[in-house]
């Protein structure tokens, strides 16, 4: 039987991307992405924020590191991957992450005087229209 493991999220980066290289030289970039859901209960407006760790590899890793920064909006499509390891204290640790297959940059870096070092100068690709989403 064939299975399906697909994650699609749109949100804002909560951290600057961190790029590193594997021992064989493959680039890998990771960053945190926040998605917020707004709803009303008992006449009161509320928000829930979910945080995702995103990991991109190879050319996609390089592009994410070059064009994304904290606060930028992005669409990430990929698969859910679970990691389990033993910490230095001997306790088992667990983390879910999205292994990105596609990342769309949904806004541009600011080109004004508030641009921070390494954020870019508005040279990011044009925002992309996401036509295949069911909403």
Round the Cα radius of gyration to an integer and report it.
Answer: 17 Å
Structural class: mainly beta
CATH class: Mainly Beta
For the record, what is the CATH homologous superfamily label?
Answer: Nucleic acid-binding proteins
What is the total domain count?
1
What fraction of residues sit in β-strands? over 45%
The count of DSSP E runs of length 2 or more, i.e. the number of strands, is 6
User: What distance lies between the first and last C-alpha atoms, to the nearest angstrom?
Assistant: 29 Å
Helices and strands, in N-to-C order? EEEEHEE
- List low-confidence stretches: 112-135
CATH architecture: Beta Barrel
The total of helices stands at 1
Q: What do we call the CATH topology?
A: OB fold (Dihydrolipoamide Acetyltransferase, E2P)
The 3D shape can be described as globular
State the major sheet: 5 strands, mixed, barrel
Helical proportion, percent range: under 10%
């Amino acid at each position: 039987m064939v299975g399906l493991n697909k994650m699609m999220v749109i949100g804002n980066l909560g951290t600057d991307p961190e790029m590193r290289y594997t021992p064989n030289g493959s680039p890998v970039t990771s960053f945190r992405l926040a998605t917020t859901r707004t709803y009303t209960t008992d006449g009161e407006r509320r928000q829930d924020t979910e945080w995702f760790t995103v990991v991109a590899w190879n050319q996609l890793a390089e592009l994410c590191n070059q064009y994304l920064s904290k606060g930028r909006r992005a669409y990430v499509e990929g698969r859910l991957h679970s990691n389990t390891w033993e910490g230095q204290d001997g306790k088992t640790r667990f983390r879910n992450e999205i292994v990105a297959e596609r990342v769309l940059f949904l806004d541009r870096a600011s080109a004004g005087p508030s641009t921070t070092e390494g954020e870019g100068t508005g040279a990011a690709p044009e925002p992309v229209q996401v036509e295949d989403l069911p909403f």
